[in-house]
Amino acid sequence: MKKHNFSAGPSILPQEVIKKAADALLNFNGLDLSLIEVSHRSKEFVDVMDKACNLAKELLNLPSGYSVLFLQGGASLEFLRVPYNLLKIDGKAAYLDTGTWSSNAIKEAKTFGNVEVVASSKDKGYNYIPKNYAIPADADYFHCTSNNTIYGTQLKSFPKTNSPLICDMSSDIFSRQLDFSKFDIIYAGAQKNMGPAGTTLIVIKDEILGKSGRKIPSILDYQVHIAKESMFNTPAVFAVYVSMLTLEWLKNLGGIPAIEKLNEAKAALIYAEIDRNPLFKGYSEKEDRSLMNATFNLVDEANKEAFDKLWSTAGISGLKGHRSVGGYRASIYNALPIESVQVLVDAMKQLEKQLS
Ligand SMILES: *Cc1c(COP(=O)(O)O)cnc(C)c1O
Question: Which bin fits 134, alpha (ψ -120 to 50), beta or left (φ > 0)?
Answer without folding.
Answer: beta
